[in-house]
Amino acid sequence: MGKTVTRRAVLGGGAAGAAAVLAAPTASAAPGGRLEGKVVLITGATSGIGRAAALAFAAQGARVGFCGRRAELGREVERELRGRGFYVQADVREPAQVESFVDAVARRWGRLDIAFNNAGITIAKPVHEISIDEWENVQRTNARGVFLAMKYEIPHLLERGGVIICTASSQAGHTRPGHAAYTASKRAIQGIANAAALDYGANGIRVLTIDPGTTDTAFVRRPGIPDDQWAQFKRAWGPLNVHGLPRMAEPSEIAAAVLALASPDFSYLTGTSVVVDGGLGTGRPMTMPQLG
């Protein structure tokens, strides 16, 4: 799969609002949206799950500040938000850039209510083939990036409470061959979030992780595959690899789960990981269909 970021549907009271987001193709805010007046911060939102989450939050009335390294894509998402959000070019590996981004979001709208720490990368290699730099890059982007984001978000959230959701992975629970660096970083994210939930629960801050299964994003799709071949690949891949709901997730489905978890409907949920993988199954090697 190369350089890949993988990102059970959440049921209950929060699912009704989330379902509405799935039906919304743009960021046009619904009148009296359920998150009207809330300020949301998202890392890694220039594509994939992060982009879908930015659009989902904006569609429910929130204001969204987001970052990512790819400025051209960031500006595209900013336009899609139709005035309900703004982009800051920032690298979650760099403390000063993360601090500046977080402060810019809080300063822009005078508060911070929800943070979705989503930025992440991976590398697929057996352990002995991973270079030191490759290992460090995955850990610095994923685990350290979440730590830095939380470090600078929490002082703003202490003012009135809020929610922090971090993207871990279903592979934090059951890894796959070649994913030592990725799984290590995602288990670390779970640990950071669980500890922070205990540190700040009394201050009204909920902290949890969402653990997506394989999701149809640009990081998963191999470069240069035509749309018809990719659709064929996805149809074959699902039944071979996902035992519950036999297909890949769509970014909007993961975004809907994030939106639901961030809503007041889950006000007593903290310090845990919510798996959204369609009933993926065990950690056996993935079976890859042939293209063409």
From TrEMBL:
Residues 1-29 form the signal peptide. Gene3D superfamilies: NAD(P)-binding Rossmann-like Domain. PROSITE patterns: ADH_SHORT (PS00061), TAT (PS51318). Keywords: NAD, Oxidoreductase, Signal. Transmembrane segments: none annotated. InterPro entries: KR_dom, NAD(P)-bd_dom_sf, Sc_DH/Rdtase_CS, SDR_fam, TAT_signal. The keyword Acetylation does not apply. Pfam families: adh_short_C2. One of its GO terms (molecular function) is oxidoreductase activity. It comes from the Bacteria. Residues 38-229 form the Ketoreductase domain. Belongs to the short-chain dehydrogenases/reductases (SDR) family. This is NAD(P)-dependent dehydrogenase, short-chain alcohol dehydrogenase family. It comes from Amycolatopsis tolypomycina. The lineage of its organism: Bacteria, Bacillati, Actinomycetota, Actinomycetes, Pseudonocardiales.
